[in-house]
Each structure stands twice: as C-alpha cells, then as structure tokens.
Design goal:
Blueprint lengths: L3 E4 L6 H16 L4 E5 L5 H9 L6 E2 L18 E2 L4 H11 L3 E5 L5 E6 H10 L4 E5 H7 L3 E4 L4 E8 L4 H7 L6 E5 L3 H9 L4 E4 L7 H9 L3 E4 L4 H7 L18 E2 L4 H11 L3 E5 L5 E6 L10 E5 L15 E7 L13 E4 L5 H12 L5 H14 L10 H14 L3 H13 L6 H6 L2 E6 L2 E9 L3 H5 L2 H14 L2 E10 L4 E6 L4 H7 L9 E4 L4 H16 L2
Parallel strand pairs: 1-2, 1-16, 2-3, 4-5, 9-10, 10-11, 11-12, 13-14, 16-17, 17-18, 20-21
Antiparallel strand pairs: 5-6, 7-9, 8-12, 14-15, 19-20, 21-22, 22-23
Length: 542
C-alpha cells in the first residue's frame, strides 16, 4: 500500500503540525497508510506542545515531485559484467531493449553496453581472442565438463584443421592456446604435452583414459561439446565476457531520487533512450527508458490547514490529492478527480478533525487530544480571536479532559514558550509565519508574530521595514505587512512597506498611520487582517 503524506502549509504553525499528526493517526486507525510531514521549521510554540505530550516532530518534506523511484523503470534490466556475450544478447532480446547496464558482483554500476558495441566487437574484434570463464564456455557450447583446473580461461582460439604431421611440426602450441579438435589422438596427445590452456572436443568426443591421465598431470582443461568444428568455431567467441566489448564505462545515469522532469530534459538534450538507475552508493537497480516517463505513480497527499497552491508543497501539481481538511477560504488548488474536501468556518483545523474522529468512532488517545487542544488554543488565541466559535470552545473542553490539562494554565505556558523572539534574526522572526495571498495578478504578503515582548521587535523595526520594502520592490509583492500580535493586550502592532502607506491607512481606517501603529482587537489574519485589505483592493480595482 502506497504511503500518503499528510501536511500543512509551508510556514508550519501549531495547527498545521498538530492537525497533520492527528489526521494521520486517524487515517491509519481506519486502515490507510499515512505519515505526517512538515514543510518547514516548526516554531517554539509548536515544539512546546510536541514536547509536552511526548510526540516526535514530523519529518521534513521537500517536495512531492515525481521521481525516478515513482516511474515504472525496468528493474530486471541489469547484467553482471562477467556473463557471456551470448547471455547478454539473449537478455537484451528477452527484455526488448537495445542496451543494458553492467554491474560487478557487488551490484555496483561499471558501465553500459548496447547492441551496436556488441556487433562491432563480433565484426571488428580479434577473432581468435577468448577471455571468459570456464562456465561461460560450457553454457555457450552446451558442453559438459571433463577436466577443470581453471575458473578463468584467457587465451587464443585455434582449430586443429591441419594434417597431424603439419600440425605438430608447424604449429607452436603454448599454454595460452584453446584448441578445438575432434577424435585425433596424436594431436590431442601433442596438445596435452604442450600444456595448452583448454581442449574443446567437438561432436561429443571424449578422451581415452590414457589421455585423461596425461591431461590431469599437465592440468589441461577439457570439455566436450555436441557441436562440430564449424559451429563450435563460430559460437566460441560468444562465450567472451560481455565486459570484453568496448562498453561505456561512464554512462549518464539517474538516481532514484532524481526528478522525472530532469530525466525528460536530459533525454531531450542527449537523445539517448536508456539510462542506468542507481542508489546513492552507485548500486544499480535497473534501467529507465524514455517510454517509462509516461508510466509512473503519483505521490499521494492529504492537505490540512490550507488549500492554496502558493502555501503548499513544491510539486503539488504532480501529486494526487486525496483529501483536504481546512478552515480557511477556498483557494487555488484544483484536482482532476473528485476528492474528500472538508471545510468549516471554525477557528482551528483540529476542531474539524475532532469531528472526523467522532464520525469514524475512533477513540482519541491522550497525546493526540493534547496536540489537538494545543492547536485550538493557538489558532483561537485562547478563545480571544474573532475566528473562535462555540464549537471550538466545546471541543477544547472535551480534549482537555482527555489530555488531563487545565486549559488556561496550559495555554499560557504554551504562549509564553512560543512568544519569545530572543536569539532569532529578523528574517527568522518575519518568515516563521509569513503567508502569500494571490490577488488578481499580484501577491500580497502578511506575516504574523505572536509575542508578549513587543519591544524586542520594535528595536529592530528598521530591519523589518527593509524586509517589507524588499518584498514589494524586488520580489513582486504589491503590499507586504507585519503584524505583531500581543495576546495579552488582544491587539496587534502593524508594520508595512513604505509605498503602501496610503493603502494601509485606508484599508484599516487609520487616520494617523505610522510604522508600528497599534490596532486594538486586531488578532486574526484570516478574519481581520486579510479581509480588510482585500476589500479595499477590490473597491479600488487593484
């Protein structure tokens, strides 16, 4: 069963992380195979919640693009470099491919060979040269073993076609020779005395006991083939190691983690159709063909706490979205087939997930209840946010009983742990909860920071304003904002890019606008910060 990844948005907050873990738990209890993931670094508040209930941080997910591992590459298209040319050709024929990766005994990639190189070797190579194993010769010649002293046979092929006297007088036999011969006692005796490397008896001939004893004493390898001299002479070269062919020792290769799109770009650039596939340690696991690019398995994903492409994982368009559970306005994500889409105007995704647990009659364990409670308290700002519903409060109370915690004490401890910005850079503070929203042909960006120590932010306000200006001047944003929310005062301080001062002033109805202006009651990005700006831009036609 394929593993489906459950994850929230790119700027993971407590709701997106805890919702991913909780929904993954529910799906697995219902028989699915899922794993929670995060798309970025988690903040201190979320770390506090996870540590409080003894839950490990989910693994980081970089993207869901189709990789070579997801393509139906040919896992059988591998050949040991020590097989014979004949066996290699049969493998190519059986797999209906024109080339194949070669490996050593440890499955390491050593090269790539194709039919063109094999044909060139057989036509232009040295006709009399043989470099192979004893077993390869047995297989190619359908022979039987008579005497074996060497596993490797390396030498020069020779056929005993002369008359006896001419052969013994004119041919200087040596240990490197591999002799093809029939039932010719004197030539056999002469060859054995010269200690040739191997004798290949044709026509199923065998040695006499006397010659067997002599060959044994001289350590001469002997086999017997049913083929006669002509066929034996023609086939023997096919017993050569396939590595004897002029192979490509440094072929273009792909790892299992390489992307399908990069594979297509490479094939377009070089024009090859077959490529070895390797693991990180260069262990070859098969071969991928251009035709395989159309046969692949999409990664399966379940989205929580978002439904906008800009906020989601890279490569989402290449994945199969199984389900979305969210509490935001409808975004830009589309699917090719109908999916389960659960959305409600509640303060937190985990409130929705609690309902899914109840609908599925799955018991909520203590640690999952704790995570879901932490998410609800975080997203509703301890029920002070205007996004809070009665359902959020009811669910939080039930979860608190299961998790055995006091809502007020746990919530304040959580916010205290998450509100400190000491030791963080301005970029880290700004980006920990920054979201992009598409408005017609432009983007607006809103970052929200929760802190009980506004002074820590204010002392670096020039740096934060510079970040906001850079977004609009160099990165294509029309408006960029930073809201510093004080959950105790129940309001936010606002910074903005300098060119948007008039827009911000009118959108939030602030007569005397200034950087760091405090807006009482402004705590929700979803229901207050974003809608006010969108309404203004729509009225002005921006």
């Amino acid at each position: 069963m394929q593993t489906a990844f459950v994850f929230g948005h790119k700027k993971p907050d407590t709701d997106s992380v805890c919702a991913s873990i909780s929904l993954s738990y529910l799906k697995n209890a219902l028989g699915m195979n899922t794993q929670p993931r995060v798309l970025g670094n988690i903040n201190n508040e979320t770390k506090f919640v996870l540590n409080y209930f003894g839950v490990n941080e989910p693994t980081y997910l970089n993207d869901v693009k189709v990789q070579i591992r997801n393509m139906n590459y040919n896992k059988k298209a591998i050949l040991n470099q020590d097989v014979s040319i004949e066996e290699a050709f049969r493998k190519l024929h059986d797999l209906n491919v024109t080339g194949i990766p070669l490996i050593d005994d440890k499955r390491k990639l050593v090269g790539y060979v194709n039919l063109k190189e094999i044909a060139k070797f057989l036509i232009e190579g040295k006709v009399t040269r043989l470099n192979t194993s004893y077993d390869n010769i047995l297989k190619v010649l359908d022979a039987k073993e008579i005497l074996r002293f060497d596993e490797e046979i390396n030498g020069t092929i020779m056929a005993a076609t002369y008359k006896v006297n001419s052969f013994t007088e004119k041919i200087n036999l040596e240990n490197k020779h591999i002799l093809i011969v029939g039932d010719r006692y004197q030539i056999l005796e002469h060859a054995i005395n010269k200690k040739v490397k191997m004798i290949i008896l044709v026509g199923n001939n065998i040695l006499s006991d006397e010659l067997v004893s002599l060959a044994t004493a001289n350590k001469v390898n002997v086999i017997s083939t049913p083929f006669y001299s002509y066929k034996t002479s023609n086939k023997i070269r096919l017993a050569n190691y396939i590595k004897s062919v002029e192979i490509n020792k440094n072929p273009i290769k792909f790892s299992l983690t390489d992307y399908r799109n990069d594979f297509l770009d490479t094939t377009n650039k070089y024009g090859h159709t077959n490529y070895p596939v390797v693991k990180k340690n260069d262990e070859c696991v098969g071969m991928v063909r251009l035709i395989d690019a159309n046969d692949y398995e999409k990664k399966q994903v379940i989205l929580v706490d978002h439904n906008q492409s800009a906020q989601s994982v890279d490569g989402l368009e290449e994945a199969e979205i199984l389900e979305i559970v969210d509490h935001h306005n409808l975004g830009t994500i589309g699917t090719n087939t109908p999916i389960n889409f659960r959305a409600m105007p509640v303060g937190c995704t985990c409130t929705l997930i609690y309902k899914l647990f109840k609908e599925s009659y799955v018991m909520i364990p203590k640690h999952i209840a704790g995570l879901m409670l932490g998410a609800i308290l975080s997203d509703t700002l301890l029920f002070k946010s205007p996004t809070t519903t009665e359902l959020d409060k009811q669910v939080a109370e039930k979860l608190a009983l299961i998790a055995d915690v006091d809502i007020e004490k746990f919530g304040m401890a959580m916010f205290k742990a998450g509100s400190s910005v000491k030791g963080m850079t301005c970029d880290q503070i700004f980006n920990q909860d920054f979201k992009t929203f598409k408005v017609n042909d432009s983007n607006i960006g809103i970052s929200q920071v929760m802190t009980m120590d506004f002074e820590e932010i204010e002392k670096d306000k020039d740096k934060f304003i510079a970040i906001l200006n850079n977004l609009t001047e160099n990165l294509g944003y029309s408006v960029s904002l930073l809201f510093v929310t004080d959950i105790i005062k129940n309001g936010s301080y606002m910074f903005y890019n300098e060119k948007a001062e008039s827009i911000v002033s009118e959108a939030y109805e602030i007569d005397k606008i200034n950087q760091g202006v405090y807006i009482d009651g402004m705590v929700s990005r979803k229901k207050q910060m974003l809608p006010s700006l969108l309404d203004y831009l729509e009225r002005k036609g921006n």
